[in-house]
Every structure is written in C-alpha cells, then in structure tokens.
Design goal:
- The complex is a heterodimer of chains A (about 600) and B (about 325).
- By secondary structure, chain A is α+β, with helices and mostly antiparallel strands.
- In chain A, the strands form seven sheets. In chain A, strands 1, 2, 10, 11, 12 and 13 form a six-stranded mixed sheet that branches.
- The radius of gyration of chain A is 33 Å and the shape is elongated.
- With about 325 residues, chain B is mainly α.
- Chain B has two domains: about 1-50 and about 65-190, Alpha Horseshoe (Leucine-rich Repeat Variant); about 215-315.
- Chain B has 18 helices and no strands.
- Chain B has helices at about 5-10, 15-25, 35-45, 65-75, 80-90, 100-110, 110-125, 130-135, 145-155, 160-170, 175-185, 195-200, 205-215, 215-225, 230-245, 250-265, 265-280, 285-300.
- Chain B is elongated.
- Classes of the chains: A alpha+beta (about 600), B mainly alpha (about 325).
- The interface of A and B includes residues 468, 498, 529, 562 and 563 of A.
- Chain A: Keywords: Signal.
C-alpha cells in the first residue's frame, strides 16, 4: 500500500497537486492486511458520533448548462427562491454534498455554497472529480488522479484550508464526513474511518454487500452500493452481514437501473443514457432497515415507475415531459430533474406531481440533494390501469423497453378493463407497433373481460366506416375459447369467412371454434371448408383441419367423407383428414361447451 | 339495346351502363348473349340509353344434351369439366338447366381453376338462383376468385347478389369495391344508395356512375350537391348517367344538372356536355337536349376543344 505525503504528490506527478499544505496522513490507512476487529472500532466511532449526528444537507437541484460557450452551474433551492448560477469550466459532473457544491474544471477545484451559489474556495489540482462529502464545515473530496489509477482524498474546510490529503493507489469511492472523521469506502467492502485530526485510520467497517459510497441523509450516516447499510448500533455486525442493511427487491427493470452508481467512477458533465435509467430511494434513518414511504422509483427516460419497497410490486407510473437525468428521494416523495431544467416533485404514495420548479434553462446533467424537504402530496385519482395505458400507448420507439415491462404489469391486472386496454394495444394502428406481438400474446392469456372481447369481435374490417384494421381476432378467439364463451361462436365464424382476417388469426379462430361452435355454426363452417378445401396452401391447412374436426364434432361428416374421396381436395388436407379419421361419425357428439367462465 | 351494343359503345368514352355491362360480359366469357340482357332486364335495364329491343329467346338446350353436360360437370376429370363448362358458357341462358349442377360445384368446393370456371359459367347462365352459391366467394381469400364471383353475381342478380355486393362495398379490396359499386348500379339496386353515397365519399369512383344510374330525384340532387367537393373526373360519370338514363329523370332535374355543369364553365364541363349531346337519346327530353346544346355553345372553349356537334347524333 502506497501512502504519499501531501508534498510528494507534485513531485511524482501521479496525484493531485495542491497549492498549499495540510496534514500528512499517518498510520495504516487502507492497509489490506488489516486485522478484522469484529466491528469494535466502527461501533466505537458510531457511539462517539451518535450524540451529534451529521447536519441535514441543503435541498437543492444543481444543473450543468451551456450558454454562449460558457459552462454554467445552475442551482435551484428546492424550498423556493431564485436559481443561482456560477460560470466555470467542468471536466466532470459537479458533486452536491451537505451545504456545498464541488466542481472541478481546467485544473481548478472549487466549492460553492449550495444554497446561494457563492464561491467558498478554489484551488489548483490535477485529476478528475469523483465525489464529495460535507458536514457543513468540512468537505472531503475524492479525486481520480491524472493517471486514472488510485485516489486523491482532500479534506478542506469551508474556509479553504486543507486539513488532509491522502494519495493512495486504492480507488476510493464517495466519501462522507462527520466532525473529525472522514468515511472512505474502498475495495468494495471496506469503509475506512479517517481521523482528520491525527491522520490515521480510526476504525474500519467491513461489509458483506458491495460498498462504494458513504453519505449522510436525514441526520444518519450510511454506507452503500448494491445495498445501503445504516451506521447505527448494529454497524459492528456488518462483517457478519447482520447490520441494518436495506436492499431493493429483486426486479428485472428495463435499462438495468442502479440505485447508487459506483462511487469510484467519474461521471461526465453531460448526462448519458445511464443517467436516464436510475433508481431513487431513501433509506429509513431510524428503526428497522427499510426505505422511506416503502417506495423506490425507477426512471426510464421520461417514464417514472414507483414500486413497493417490500414486495417490489408496481404501485404507479408517471410520465414526464422530458427525459429525467437526476433526482433524489425525500420523506414523502421524490424530486426529479429533467433535461429541460424542470424539477418535479412526485408524491411517493401515488406518483402525483405535487410541485414543480425550474432551473430556468435546459441542462446537460443534474444532481439533486433532498434531505429535509417536505412537500404536501396531491391526490391522484387515475387508477394504475389508466396510468399504464397512457404510457404503453405512446408511439415512442425509445420507450419500447419500459412499455414491454409495463405491458406485463398491465397483463397481470385482473380487471376487465385491462382486457379492453390489451385489445387496443393489440389492434393494428392503435398501440405502439413494437408492442403488438407482446400485447397479442397477453390478450390470448386473458381470462376476464369477456364482454370486451365479444364487443371487439363485433368490429370487422369496414372500409366505408374507416375501420381499416380488424380487431386482434386470433388472441381474442384464444381467450374466449379458454373462457368457454360460446357467445363468441357466431362472431368467430364471421371472422373465419372474412378475408380481412389474417392467416395467423385464422388459425386461432378455427381452433377456438373447435371448442365453441355449435350446430348454428355448421352452415358457415361447411361453406368455409368447401371454399378452401381445394387450395394447396400450407398456411390454410391447419385452419381446415380445425374446421374439419369441428364439423365432425357437430356431426356434419358427409362433407368430410366426400372430401376424402373427392379428387378436388388438396392432397395434404386429404392426408390429414384420413389420418384424423374425421369422416367417422363421433359416437356421441360433443355438446357445445356452456357459456361463461369455467 | 343489346349487350353487344353496349360493348361497342364502351370502346370509346366509357359509358356508365356500358362499363357495368362490360363487366358482365367479362364474367360471361365475353360471349354476346341476348338472353343475358333479358335476364338482367329487371335490374339492369335502367341505365340503357334506349329501351332494350325484345330479344328472341333461343330455345333451351335439349334435355339429352343437358344430361350429358351435367354428367361431365359432375365427373372427376378436371379437363373434361372445364370443357363442359366452356360449352355451357357458350350456350348461355339456354343452358340454364345446368345452373344447379354448377352451383353444387361451388357449394361443395373444388380446385381454384374449376371454381373460377364455374363462376364464369354461372355468370353466363345469369340465373338468379345462382347468386346464393356465388355470394360466399365474393369474400374468398383469393383475389381473383373474389373478382370473378363479383362479376358473375352482377349478371345472376337478385337479393342475394345485391346483399353480397353491398357487403363488398365495405371490403378492403379496392377492385372489389369498384366492381361492387358498378354492379349495384347495373342491377338498379336502389336500396344500396346509402352505401353507394358512403362509397363515393370514401373515394370509390365507380359509385358516382352507379348512383347516377339508380338515383331517384332526391338522391340525384344529393349527387349533384357533391359537385365541387368530389373531383369532376369522378362526378362526370355520374352526371352523364343522370342525363342519359332511360327512361329519363324528370325534366327539371335534368335541366338543373345541365345548368350546374354549365355554371362550372370549365373545359372538362364543356367536354362532358358535348359528350352527352353526342349520345343524347333520340327519345330524350327536347328541352334538356336544347339546354345541353345551348350550354355547350355558350361555354368558353379552346380551339383544340372538340367542336360543338350538337345533339344530332342521337344513339341509334
């Protein structure tokens, strides 16, 4: 392990170069040969800090804008007030922590007052900004050195005095600071507690979940990565995986969004697609491990999905006006920042937009800190089905992945109206084209909403009435057959005889009629069989076989017997008829299945 | 007027009725059969510019020949069946006794070539009883069969034919919609007027001439009201039908048609009236003829426009 003194940095030109001095780090910081103390050290630190928890951070949305060739940092206090701006080049995305905004551009590291945008200090450095922590007095900053390997950690007071500098070849993630201690996550499993006063490692936490962040929320300190662990009286059990750790329910979400991005990465000043697919959640600050409001949300471009934190079940869906590129969770809701520079507050329970403010201009990236803010929720009467319908129906190719996901959610709803929505989505020219196959498959699986299915079957291609797309007859037929809905039979034979019915649908229609048709349908079935039995068309063969089986079931065997011997029957069909012995009168004709669900 | 007469006329500018009946002829293997027009008389007689001359109906085929043909039609040799059907088509309505056997072929089903030949033959026989057997095929999945069935059913006529063609107006097949509109006009299917107006509004051009052939004065006024909203090319066929119908529409209606066309004062409008004048029926209404002449004389025209030949060339 290499530990470099402050003044060695410039000489080796590997790490940050600072313009003035500070304390040199002592002790075995980041020593991989560290002897596990079973959490005694971190527990002691926790007990020491418990009486004076970290202060809440400033509630602010900070965007990066480009105006007239200049890069602007724009801050909008979430509690209201005019947005502030600060012009400075940026090599990476600024960090918001505690009461400061930290930025780095053109070798100049600077800190702004997060509430007002006022410059607190600036220093010359080399490297790129990863992340920062702040407790209202001291800011701890993690930099990626110019070499791209290892880390430079700076602890700087709001007055600009450098308290500590550490240069190490470990990648150190997003730090936190509380009083004299800096919390530095590294190697994905450790959080070193650095004593800023003496420069040594005061303690170390070992966690069994991936960790690259230390941060404070609501007066509590957390270590996080794949999961988030609260620094409370159970932190000593972190090494045994028994600390107060909250994990998100396992759900495959489109875009594979992450709750916490790797704290060791440097994020560009301009948001990427990864920023548009993100999870926001706020761990509870007291009590058992959990998420505030039992909610977490996932963004996918301009779609926001809210989930129950315990079950992972979808709770609501909200559609934004522009792609969401940043956000945060607060007690009672979520605040999200979009590319247009609009900042929207969503109620955690129902996803209702409860407030909105603006950064005043489009932004390239956005970082939001919401710690103590409270926003009164607004009611939302729109049921989940309609929320889903609205998003899934959007003709937006960029949203197909989330639409597929939401379509599955919609399909799982037992409501009759969900069936009606699926009919719309599966109808050509109505839903998003890329979703049609999925909607059709889901429709075929419906076991509720027969009245909507029957009503849809009433609709047929009608050029004069501008009905130029027939309903998704095939999946409707499959669903009604599964429901044993015999009222569908006359409607299905009409579609069977309609050339507007696609061949793929036709097979499902014939298959459904095999279950649903009664004596009243025999004439139409005979007509169909006669019209097509001489066609040597492989795609029609399964249809004809189903129709033949239905005719046989209904006792209309004469036409089948003749078809076997008649020279005009296509050979392939004759073979199938012979094999199926469809010409034999069934010993006991099957009655038509009863109407209604089984 | 015989079917043959109409075919001849159709060589030049398409007359609405001529076009309708040309389709019939197409269905009937283009064999001029006087009996076919007689069979159509109740439905397709109106569009004719001149009342049909009573045709001398040829005697039916001898029973022995009918029996022999029937046996061949019911046989298992496709080539022989095709040949027998061709023979029946040539015989036309004189072979009407064979219609049930051919209808049976459609009802039981066969190969596509046989089905097509059977439809053509039923069209040639022009028996109303055949419409029920033909009707399902107007909705066949194979386009050619749909069209063949539609052509045939125009000549077989009757309520089943009207119902099938009215439904075909709603189909996705543009050619079929055109055939249906033309056929409904040829069959004088007044019940189909609402559908034909819908079809006209939805861009089925053949509906204009069909409406012109079958409209009552009120419906004719409605058609006239579409001048300016539907392209003149489409409207012209309907207007022409309004002016050349026999028996003619009430004089006031026809005079209004002439006046409205005259008011357009376009070369196309003048050409239409010139065309009407040159085909005006000898027994047409004199004041209408005079109005057509006056209009064509008064309307501005270019040097390369056809001369005003007057209405002296009435149809023979």
């Amino acid at each position: 392990m290499k530990r470099l003194a402050l003044l060695l940095g410039p000489l080796l030109a590997l790490g940050a170069a600072l313009s003035c001095g500070g304390g040199q780090t002592q002790g075995s910081v980041f020593d991989p040969l560290w002897a596990n103390d079973d959490g005694k050290g971190i527990a002691a630190i926790q007990r020491q800090l418990a009486p004076a928890p970290p202060p809440r951070g400033v509630d602010v949305a900070v965007g990066v804008a480009q105006e007239g060739g200049r890069t602007l940092i724009v801050g909008a206090p979430l509690r209201g007030g005019e947005p502030w701006t600060y012009a400075h080049a940026l090599d990476a995305r600024p960090a918001v922590a505690g009461s400061v905004v930290v930025g780095l551009g053109r070798r100049e590291l600077f800190a702004l007052d997060a509430a007002k945008g006022k410059l607190l200090w600036k220093r010359s450095v080399q490297g790129r900004l990863r992340a920062a922590g702040d407790d209202g007095r001291t800011t701890v900053i993690s930099l990626e050195p110019r070499t791209g390997r290892g880390s430079v950690i700076l602890a700087i007071t709001h007055d600009g005095e450098v308290l500590r500098q550490i240069e190490d070849d470990q990648d150190i993630g997003a730090p936190a600071v509380v009083g004299r201690y800096a919390f530095l996550p590294w190697q994905g499993q450790y959080v070193t507690v650095l004593d800023l006063l003496h420069g040594g490692e005061a303690a170390r936490a070992l966690l069994r979940t991936e960790v690259s962040h230390a941060f404070s929320i609501g007066g509590a300190l957390f270590f996080g990565g794949a999961a988030v662990t609260r620094v409370d009286d159970k932190i000593r059990l972190g090494g045994q995986g028994r600390a107060t750790t909250v994990t998100l329910p396992a759900r495959e979400l489109p875009g594979n969004p992450r709750w916490l991005n790797p704290g060791t990465e440097v994020f560009p000043a301009r948001a990427t697609a990864l920023d548009k697919t993100h999870i926001y959640a706020r761990p509870t600050v007291t009590g058992p491990a959990g998420l505030a409001d039992d909610r977490f949300i996932a963004t996918y471009f301009r779609v926001v999905t809210g989930f129950d934190a315990r079950s992972g079940k979808l709770a609501w869906v909200t559609l934004g006006d522009a792609d969401i590129i940043g956000g945060a969770a607060y007690e009672g809701g979520f605040v999200l920042c979009d590319e247009r520079g609009d900042v929207t507050f969503l109620d955690a329970a129902h996803g209702a937009p409860s407030a909105r403010l603006s950064l005043g201009r489009p932004v390239r990236s956005c970082v939001v800190q919401a710690d103590g803010i409270k926003v009164p929720p607004l009611p939302r009467k729109e049921p989940l089905l309609r929320q889903l319908e609205r998003v899934v129906s959007l003709p937006d190719a960029e949203l197909v992945a989330i639409q597929r996901f939401l379509l599955q959610e919609l399909s799982a709803l037992p409501d009759d109206e969900a069936t009606a929505t699926l009919i719309q989505l599966a109808s050509q020219g109505r839903g998003a084209p890329a979703l049609m196959d999925a909607a059709r498959a889901a429709l075929a699986e419906r076991r509720s909403g027969a009245r909507f299915l029957l009503a849809a079957l009433e609709r047929r291609y009608d050029y004069l009435a501008s009905v130029v797309h027939p309903p998704p007859v095939g999946p409707i037929a499959a669903a009604l057959a599964a429901m044993k809905e015999s009222k569908a039979a006359p409607l299905l034979v009409a579609h069977l005889l309609d050339p507007a019915t696609s061949l793929s649908d036709l097979v499902q229609v014939a298959e459904a009629l095999a279950a649903l048709a009664g004596p009243a349908e025999v004439p139409a079935l005979r007509t169909f069989f006669a019209m097509y039995r001489g066609m040597d068309d492989a795609s029609l063969l399964p249809v004809l076989v189903h129709v033949a089986a239905t005719l046989r079931r209904l006792g209309a065997v004469e036409i089948l017997s003749r078809a076997v011997t008649d020279p005009w029957t296509a050979d392939a069909l004759r073979d199938r008829l012979t094999a199926l012995d469809t010409t034999a009168q069934p010993s006991r004709p099957s009655p038509r299945p009863p109407s209604g669900p089984p | 007027m015989s079917v043959l007469d109409l075919r001849r006329e159709n060589v030049g500018r398409a007359r609405p009725a001529a076009f309708a009946l040309a389709l019939v002829l197409s269905a009937a293997s283009l064999t001029p059969i006087s009996g076919a027009s007689a069979a159509m008389a109740p439905s397709a007689g109106k569009p004719k510019a001149r009342p049909a001359q009573p045709a001398k109906r040829p005697p039916p085929l001898p029973a022995a020949e009918v029996a022999a043909l029937q046996q061949r039609i019911q046989g298992r040799d496709a080539e022989d069946i095709q040949a027998a059907l061709a023979t029946v088509r040539s015989a036309g309505p004189t072979a009407a006794a064979l219609a049930p056997a051919i209808e049976q072929l459609l009802r039981r089903g066969a190969t596509l070539p046989l089905l097509r030949a059977a439809m053509k033959t039923l069209g040639a026989l022009a028996q109303t009883s055949s419409s029920a057997a033909l009707a399902p095929y107007v909705r066949h999945r194979v386009e050619e069969l749909r069209h063949e069935a539609a052509r045939a059913i125009v000549t077989t006529g009757g309520p089943d034919a009207v119902a099938a063609l009215r439904e075909a107006l709603h189909a996705g097949d543009a050619t079929l919609r055109g055939l249906a509109a033309t056929g409904l006009g040829a069959m004088n299917a007044r019940d189909a007027l609402p559908d034909l107006f819908e079809a006209l509004d939805r861009g089925v051009p053949q509906a204009a001439s069909a409406i012109g052939l079958v409209c009552d004065p009120a419906a004719c006024q409605k058609l006239l009201g579409k001048l300016g909203t539907i392209s003149f090319d489409v409207m012209a066929s309907g207007l022409e039908a309004l002016l050349l119908r026999s028996p003619p529409l009430p004089e006031a209606v026809q005079l209004e048609v002439v006046q409205r066309v005259r008011n357009l004062a376009t070369p196309d409008a003048r050409r239409l009236l010139l065309d009407v004048g040159s085909h005006f029926p000898a027994d047409g209404q004199a004041r209408v003829r005079a109005a057509v002449e006056a209009a064509t004389a008064a309307m501005p025209h270019n040097d390369d426009d056809p001369p005003n030949t007057g209405a002296g060339e009435a149809r023979p």
